[in-house]
Write a structure and sequence with these properties.
This protein is an alpha/beta fold. The chain has two domains: 10-65, Vcp-like ATPase, Chain A, domain 2 (Roll); 69-254, Rossmann fold (3-Layer(aba) Sandwich), CATH 3.40.50.150. Helix content is 26%, strand content 32%. The chain contains eight helices and 15 strands. It has helices at residues 40-43, 67-73, 83-92, 110-117, 129-143, 145-148, 181-187, 201-212; strands spanning 10-15, 20-24, 30-33, 36-39, 51-53, 59-63, 100-104, 121-126, 151-155, 167-172, 188-198, 216-222, 229-232, 235-238, 248-254. The strands form four sheets. The chain has a seven-stranded mixed beta sheet, with helices on both faces. Strands 2-1-6-5 form a four-stranded antiparallel beta sheet, covered by helices on one side. α3 (83-92) crosses α4 (110-117) and α4 (110-117) crosses α5 (129-143). The termini are far apart. Bound molecules: S-adenosyl-L-homocysteine (SAH). S-adenosyl-L-homocysteine (SAH) binds at residues 78-81, 104-105, 107-111, 125-128, 131, 157-159, 173-175. Residues 78-81, 104-105, 107-111, 125-128, 131, 157-159, 173-175 line the site of S-adenosyl-L-homocysteine (SAH).
């Protein structure tokens, strides 16, 4: 069912050159670019996908931002997990609605947003107060109240322990995930899944070694390569540029005692 754009909503304005602007609609507000301005009131009540003209006759298309568009534009303290990797992490961790997930560290909240949107109940451990605050604001800014009720962030060092029990999943994005492995083993249910994201393969190897020492099986490490294609008439070929590297995704499952 379609509903009109409302005051207070976030929208993404895109121009012909593919530039994107994230704007929060307010009654009486104005959006300005070098290509002219648009009154928010022209957008409020309108339909997603509508096209409008600026005062200097440039065309803009109006959308509600997707999660990945939001994540790449939201304020960030720490480096975020890229959407291609968040997608893989969700699938590797087999996140389901109501799953009890411990996430550490939460950083800017990009990965938290994906976990929450998949319906998980997320307990975040983060050592930096300012990042924890930023993550909570970013989550509220896109998912609103329903998700913030499922999102609790504590200022805790996950290398020192995990206080929760009966967790379904542990998802890590921090420098030394192997330090969390024994705590994850103590907190996960049998069959529970550990997933860690690491920029370096040396970190991944060290993590795998830690998993070999404990009640873990079905370990795997993978990376996601995302290559866009340029398609225009007969010019059909891969794009010249791609993001060459982000990180590795390592998964393991907790055995029964
Ligand atoms: N996945 C996040 C980014 C995490 S960046 C996102 O997508 O937005 C890594 C975070 O781990 C940083 O915020 C850092 O402060 C935090 N961190 C590092 N060591 C930690 C520890 N021992 N316990 C908890 N958080 C930790």
């Amino acid at each position: 069912m379609s509903r009109g754009l409302r005051s207070g909503e976030l929208v993404l304005l895109t121009d012909r050159k593919g530039r994107r602007y994230l704007v929060s609609l307010v009654e009486g507000g104005e959006f300005h670019t070098h290509a002219g301005s648009v009154a928010h009131d022209t957008l409020i009540g309108g339909a997603e996908g509508m096209q409008v003209r600026t005062t200097r006759n440039a065309e803009l298309t109006v959308w509600r931002p997707t999660l990945s568009e939001y994540v790449l534009r939201m304020p960030r303290g720490a480096q975020v997990v890229y959407p291609k990797d968040s997608a893989a992490i969700l699938m590797q961790a087999d996140v389901f609605p109501g799953a009890r997930v411990l996430e550490s560290g939460v950083g800017s909240g990009a990965l938290s947003l994906s976990l929450l949107r998949a319906g998980a109940v997320v307990l975040g451990y983060e050592i930096r107060e300012d990042f924890a605050q930023q993550a909570k604001e970013n989550v509220a800014g896109f998912l609103g109240l329903d998700a913030t009720e499922r999102y609790q962030v504590e200022i805790k060092d996950s290398y020192r322990g995990i206080e929760a029990e009966g967790l379904d999943r542990v998802v890590l994005d921090l420098p030394e995930p192997w330090q969390v492995v024994p705590h994850a083993a103590a907190s996960l249910v049998p069959g529970g899944i550990l997933v860690a994201y690491t920029p370096s393969i040396v970190q991944a190897a060290r993590l795998r070694e830690a998993c070999e020492a404990g009640p873990w099986a079905a370990a795997s490490t993978m990376e996601v390569l995302h290559r866009e294609w340029h398609i225009e008439g007969d010019a059909v070929r891969p794009e010249h540029r791609m993001v060459g590297h982000t990180g590795f995704v390592t998964t393991a499952r907790r055995l029964a005692d």
